[in-house]
UniProtKB/TrEMBL annotation:
<dbReference type="InterPro" id="IPR011042">
    <property type="entry name" value="6-blade_b-propeller_TolB-like"/>
</dbReference>
<keyword id="KW-0574">Periplasm</keyword>
<protein>
    <submittedName>
        <fullName>Tol-Pal system beta propeller repeat protein TolB</fullName>
    </submittedName>
</protein>
<dbReference type="Pfam" id="PF07676">
    <property type="entry name" value="PD40"/>
</dbReference>
<keyword id="KW-0732">Signal</keyword>
<comment type="similarity">
    <text>Belongs to the TolB family.</text>
</comment>
<dbReference type="GO" id="GO:0017038">
    <property type="term" value="P:protein import"/>
</dbReference>
<dbReference type="GO" id="GO:0042597">
    <property type="term" value="C:periplasmic space"/>
</dbReference>
<dbReference type="InterPro" id="IPR014167">
    <property type="entry name" value="Tol-Pal_TolB"/>
</dbReference>
<dbReference type="InterPro" id="IPR011659">
    <property type="entry name" value="WD40"/>
</dbReference>
């Protein structure tokens, strides 16, 4: 099952001392399937940030990126067309970023974008990539978003845990929690301003929520009961999580300020990893049928029904629209599968043998997940068509438990 649940039982607690560490930027490598890219595009150099735009479009799995060197520095449409590209991104960056998207076949400018200055200039490039992506696919881009993940470093029995938030490509990391006791299962509030997570700082897993701007945190779950795997409701007013009682785990929904919790499942075994599919539907993992499968219920409980049937082990749902990313185990390996909840069509998009903890982008077109990279935990991003894969790894230690933010302002 998803690391959030297993880790609740298996992780060894440390010294409980607060620590301060600087977050390390994740290193990145992008691998593209040879058949990727229904649309060919060239991003002409307009500043160092053009490489950020290029990388964003490349990891979407939708585009074949042409090398700007093919144009030999010539921005004339004929020269750009000769590179094999159907579209070109040209522009300038001096304070503002002004870009044009040109259809090289027709010679028409099909998009003109002005990105105002931003203190984080890389976000300007991500915003530009989002606009180009939306213009060409009709789907809102999700490159200008953030991710949260857990970094663990140090000796096995004395590790330091950091809960880190960063840009979606691993740049600009910031540690929001640092502890010698395990931290896990981050979950973004729908406005992207808070993160709920589980910490063992009291000796048992308890759900907290932290404001990213102020650093202030509050306790969400009963500190006298082990609670895991929090998830925010779409309106930000409630948080669902799983609570242990007499060897069983059941789903509880409480107010986002804690308190007022109501139990919405009541079966023996494990009911965990709740995810809100919409304002009144919660998808969760349950082993009531013998092996973990996805089920759904209402926000008030009742009307429970099973929703995953392919394969003997499905867990850890992450949902965006009709797209449901999940962990599927088979034959000693685990991979990430995406299911269309409406058509029930499925496809496996990850390439590892121990892939876990999927976190789907808000537009449902990329999935961030944890993977084993030569004995070290790292992160990876796969496009929903499986054609582009990005590795995100740290040289400082293991990284795991990713969560993808909603769209940001």
């Amino acid at each position: 099952m998803k690391t959030t649940l297993l880790a609740s039982v298996l992780l060894v607690t440390g010294l409980g001392l607060p620590v301060t560490l600087t977050a390390e930027e994740l290193h990145s490598r992008i691998d593209i399937d040879a058949t990727a890219g229904e649309t060919s595009i060239i991003v002409m150099p307009f500043s160092p940030l053009s490489k950020v735009v290029e990388a964003d479009l490349q990891r979407s799995g939708r585009f074949a990126l042409m090398d700007p060197a093919r144009a030999g520095g010539n921005f004339a449409p004929d020269a750009l067309r000769a590179t094999g590209a159907e579209y070109a991104v040209v522009g300038s960056h001096s304070g503002d970023m002004n870009l044009q998207l040109v259809n090289l076949r027709s010679g028409q400018v099909v998009g003109a974008f002005r990105i105002p200055p931003h203190p984080n200039e890389r976000r300007m490039a991500h915003k530009a990539a989002d606009l180009v992506f939306e213009k060409l696919t009709g789907v809102k881009g999700a490159f200008d978003t953030r991710i949260a993940y857990v970094s663990a470093s140090g000796p096995a029995k004395n590790q330091t845990y950091q809960l880190i938030v960063s840009d979606a490509d691993g740049f600009n990391p910031r540690t929001i929690v640092s502890s010698r006791k395990p931290v896990m299962s981050p979950s973004w509030s729908p406005d992207g301003r808070q993160v709920a997570y589980v910490s063992y700082e009291t000796g048992r897993p308890v759900v907290y929520a932290q404001d990213l701007a102020s650093g202030g945190k509050r306790t969400i779950s009963d500190p006298n009961r082990s609670s895991i795997s929090p998830s925010w409701s779409p309106d930000g007013r409630s948080i669902a999580y799983s609570v242990a009682e007499r060897g069983n785990y059941n789903i509880v929904v409480s107010g986002a300020n804690g308190g007022g919790g109501r139990q919405i499942t009541n079966t023996r075994g494990i009911n965990a990893e709740p995810q809100w599919a919409d304002s009144n539907t919660i998808v969760f993992t349950s082993d009531r049928s013998g092996q973990p499968q996805l089920y759904k219920t209402t926000a008030n409980g009742g009307s429970e029904s099973r929703m995953s049937f392919s394969g003997g082990y499905n867990a850890g749902a992450s949902i965006a629209g009709n797209s449901v990313a999940m962990v599927r185990q088979s034959g000693g390996t685990s991979s990430i599968t995406i299911m269309d909840a409406a058509t029930k069509q499925e496809r496996t998009i990850s390439r590892g043998t121990q892939d876990d903890s999927p976190a789907i982008s808000p537009n449902g077109m990329m999935v961030l997940y944890a993977t084993d990279a030569g004995g070290r935990n790292s992160l990876a991003v796969a496009s929903d068509n499986g054609k582009a894969h990005q590795s995100l790894y740290s040289q400082a230690g293991d990284v795991r438990d990713p969560a993808w933010s909603p769209y940001l302002d």
